[in-house]
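A student in our group prepared the protein record below, which I am reviewing. Thanks in advance; the entry in question is below.
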Amino acid sequence: MKKTGIVIFLFVTIILFRGAAQTPSVKMWDHRYGGTKTEEVFSLEHTRDGGYMLAGISQSGADGDKTEPCWDPSNTLHDYWLLKTDSTGVREWDKRFGGFSYDFLYSCRQTSDDGYILAGYSQSDSSGDKTEYSRGGMDFWILKTDVSGHKLWDKRYGGSGEDYLFTMEIAHDGGFLLGGYSASDSSGDRTQHTRGLGDYWIVKTDSLGNKQWDRRYGGSNDESLWSLWPTRDGGYLLGGVSGSPAGGDKTDALRDTCSACYVADYWLVKIDSAGNKEWDKTYGGVREDYLYSVLQCTDGGFILGGMSLSGIGFEKSQSTKGGADYWIIKTDSLGTIQWDADFGGNGNEDEVGNVTQTADGGFLIPGSSYTATASGDKTEDNLGLEQTWLVKTDEDGTKMWDKTIFTTGHDETSLALEVGKCFIVANTCMGDVGGYKTELNWDVSQSTWDYWVVKFCDSSVVAFVNESPDLNSLSSVYPNPFSNQLNAHFKTNTTVTITLCDYTGKEILRAKTNSTEAVLNTGGIAAGLYFLRVENGSEVRNYKVVKSQ
């Protein structure tokens, strides 16, 4: 290519790149955490020291990244598993908590003393880390730790039936609000009779876990609470799924009219600081709709995120693209719909994770997708069977970009956070090395799950040549533009990995060296803009490079 052609090519490439700059296009790092059996992550937090907390369940013994064995010696039941990393995802410590039976952690938050509150449900009697006997089958179970993960206290709450905790938040007064599903009647810690088969049940505690009050909300069938949020007026928003007609605490009729389906609508309940119901709203279409995530927006309204199988009808204004899609609803502060949006491909999109509002006023929607080829709102093919799929919208629900997080396997339970111009994505992953994943699954048969976290950034925050110092050992990256070969030269023998990625962050080529030269043979790749990541274990640098032809 002539020099003029290179200039034109670079100009066009830069324009295209700037047009896609809002997408988190550059992968910074990824890490796998787990043991040789199953781990599943359900909670992700950006901690005050700049690191990350991941919490979920583990079935593994003391192996892999896990330093403590399950309390169940057969390793067939789950314990809570908490893992803390630094700002680059490097593991700092991990802790296991449980009893001799089944313990399932759903939520974890950092507390004002920099410790952690862990919340889920437990079938264990007094044993292991659990100090109180079960009330019935499953009970709510919370556990408080210090900043290093050492247990300070634990509490159990339940009735004579089954009680499942799915959500927890720190309350306005520094105590805790716990929520989930309860099939217990008035017994144990539950003070009100069931409305139907099962109800929303919340328990309010002080900062030491002492119960202050509890409330149930429901209709004549089943309700299950999946998300709650402390609102600015001192109350709380409760969001989940209802299968009940009007009656009891429910004022709206069922939307789901599919007689052959599991009946399910979004159900939103607003309560005051003492748990008194202020209003409730039902949203749905003619089929099943599952609400998993709620939060209050900067304008005082609410964003609701879940999964829908419904076409157009009732509150749903758009049809699905495939079997099941993401369905997002924006309301005002009284629950009146302002807009709704459906996102999907021609396959099935699974449960939406923790929908968050981003710094620009839009929304980040993480979830998972079985859509194998780009279609509908999905612009990239899956690499593995089921992949994490991110959708970013503006404040009016219009899609700005989407991103598929490539691995070779099956991924579930997707969570995402915005940190500056970067995004941290956590999921439960069965894949081995491939796509964006650089570390092996701890189970060599790849039949069990690990936690997996990956960080992507907007290109504007990545350190490029002439914009930041090189690695101390790096002499040069050449030639640039390159053709059939790209070289990294080091001043001394250095153990280094160099990775060439395309503009989406997808890995193209990789080489390792423990000498003064690392070489990538690039003859088989297309012309375009790429990023070269150079890492030596303690330092990472990223360079913008161009393939000329």
Remarks:
- The longest helix spans residues 3-19.
